[in-house]
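This entry is listed as follows:

___
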Amino acid sequence: MRKRFEIQLELGATPIEEIKIPVRSRDELPPVMRALKYIYTTPEIHREIFQVLEQHIKIFKMGCLGMSLWEILVLGVVRLTLDIDYDRLEHVANYDLLVRQFLGVDSYAREPKKYPLQTLKDNVGLLTEELLVEISHIVVKTGHKITCKKKDEALRLKVDTFPVQSNVHFPTDFSLLWDSARKSIKTILRLVEDTDIGGWRKGVYWIRHVKNAFIGASKMMGKGGKNKKSRFKTKVREYLNVVKELSQKIDATLPEIKQSVSVDDIVRIVYLLELEYYKEMLDKHTCLRAAHRQIDLVERRVLKEEKIPHSEKLFLIFEPYTEWIQKGKAGNKVDLGLNVLATTDQHGFCLYHHVCEHEQDVSLAVPTVEKTMSDYHRKLGSVSFDRGFWSRENHDRLKEMIPKVILPKKGKLNREEYDREHEKTFVALRHKHAAVESDINSLDHHGLERCPDKGLLHFKSYVALGILAYNLHRLGNVLMTPERKKLKTRPAVAGAVSSAFA
């Protein structure tokens, strides 16, 4: 049975209204906890956020007691605030005193409540992208009520994109072929287990056989010496012959495996779908834009010495959405993941974000402003971009919606464009645009440098949770600023340790 929050607290548990948060701490957690405390103790915000949670997370009327909606939200935010994995989150949930106070747990009880690792994974995983975006909007609107001195104060937007890496290794066509082969063998061994299907008694041998051929080809690629090219091609042919033999063996067994899988056996159906996917990855280089034989790609690149077009490449079989991101930074750095667009305002809040799939910056400028205006219904005073968003159509469309558009042009400027970009207001707002880099750096510290979760849906949810943690951190700092000022102006009293808490 899932509830909003356990109103009847455990004996000895501290009510959230009475929790003292360290004001002088420079750690990331206290400001987020301060924002959560403000949300919980403000009835209208409290009601609005729990309505969103109830719409997206099922509340069971019967069954075993599950984690409350409040516990799920707190633990999800803590995970991204501290940029930790689930193993560390388990430790924090069970032993961090401040976090456990917010969870309504008495840590000094004889048998205090514990949060198992799998329970944390199952419940925090319920936070979807749509849910988190709605809560983030509520947090931003709350922050604007506090920070905006005038109700009709215009927002000054700053827009930029940054890469969030997938949890992948650096891909090569050799390693992709090896990943496809080993996963095909391991999955087929699970399917033929406890059946009469023969031919796979030496399944472990096949894994070792393919791996030895993969290592032999990989090592030869980095070696020197005479006739290196011919020796390298010989090793690659050996590797491809082993993989082709494996592919034929799987094709011979696959019809018999399909007949052995019953409609009611969900586990075996899942394994069969996995086998078909890995077998397809073994035979084909499948992605959203092209489908080509993986074996042929290795043959074309190494044996026929062809240059493979970038559109025909896949960077990981486990995360097929992964893109090759090269933004022209120093050192020619390459990121494997997806670009994320972030829109921040002059108060440091992230108003809107978007996970880009095969999208260029130039196609995002106008939709970003339109979406931000529809979500917040506030007047926009200016919006700033970098040169990657430039196009004549973007500039003309944005000029109709916003008074000041800071969109530097690529290439040579004519006289009119030169005058526009050297105007005093344009130059000042363009300099202020650099603050978005600081906001992006803060987002990186809130878990958005690398996503450890699997799958595109979980990737998007992870990014949305990082944005929410960032906005809560910003709201907490806004709330703690006057409290910190009071501590500075208050006269020093010997032994007044409690003054460090609020």
In short: Residues 285-292 have pLDDT under 50 and may be disordered.
